């Protein structure tokens, strides 16, 4: 819970101090996204790996922090505005890793980031080949590694 509070404080500082054209710091924003995804994907938050009793206890005490941080990552992505293109294709892999976490609310709130990435790249270049190349490469790697499930495939296609 304390790590989540610290990450949220970092996010607030980024929005307030390092978002404007004159003060934008690409590396700080990049660090935020990587830190937040690493937090979200850490083993100790993967509730589906625990017994029902332990899962229930964790949810009662802390809630599902994955959905909370996932929504924060999504909001931070949209805060970037025209700067989003600077994170494509580099953030495709981390965002994909996050969306593969088998938690429906998290997936619903974060899969749309991919479509925003495509739109962003297309508006600038009239193509989304950089995004496409990266997502296919990362998807191949993740699926071969045993990640992804039928629910993910159906949700991705329907969205």
Keywords:
159 residues, mainly alpha, 9 helices, guanyl-nucleotide exchange factor activity, small GTPase binding
Structure description:
The protein is an all-alpha fold. It has one domain. The protein is built from 9 helices and no strands. The longest helix has 16 residues, at 2-17. It is globular and about 50 Å long. It starts with a helix and ends with a helix.
Describe the SSE topology:
Blueprint: H1 2-17, H2 26-41, H3 52-62, H4 65-79, H5 92-99, H6 104-110, H7 112-125, H8 129-144, H9 150-158
Helix pairs in contact: 1-2, 1-4, 2-4, 2-5, 4-6, 5-8
Question: Which overall shape is indicated by the principal axes computed on the Cα atoms?
Answer: globular
Helix content: over 70%
**Mean pLDDT level:** 94
Structural class: mainly alpha
Order of helices and strands: HHHHHHHHH
Number of helices: 9
How much of the sequence is in beta strands? under 5%
Low-pLDDT ranges: none
The major pleated sheet works out as:
none
Task: Provide a compact summary of the structure.
By secondary structure, the chain is an all-alpha fold.
């Amino acid at each position: 819970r304390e790590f989540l509070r610290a990450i949220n404080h970092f996010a607030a500082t980024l929005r307030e101090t390092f978002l404007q054209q004159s003060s934008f710091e690409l590396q700080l924003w990049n660090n935020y996204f990587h830190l937040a995804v690493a937090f979200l994907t850490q083993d100790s938050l993967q509730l589906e790996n625990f017994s029902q009793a332990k899962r229930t206890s964790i949810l009662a005490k802390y809630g599902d922090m994955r959905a909370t941080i996932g929504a924060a990552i999504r909001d931070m992505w949209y805060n970037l505005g025209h700067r989003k293109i600077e994170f494509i294709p580099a953030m495709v892999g981390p965002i994909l890793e996050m969306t593969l976490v088998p938690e429906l609310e998290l997936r619903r709130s974060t899969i749309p980031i991919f479509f925003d990435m495509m739109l962003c790249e297309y508006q600038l270049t009239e193509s989304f080949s950089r995004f496409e190349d990266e997502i296919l490469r990362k998807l191949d790697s993740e699926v071969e590694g045993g990640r992804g499930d039928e629910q993910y495939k159906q949700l991705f296609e329907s969205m």
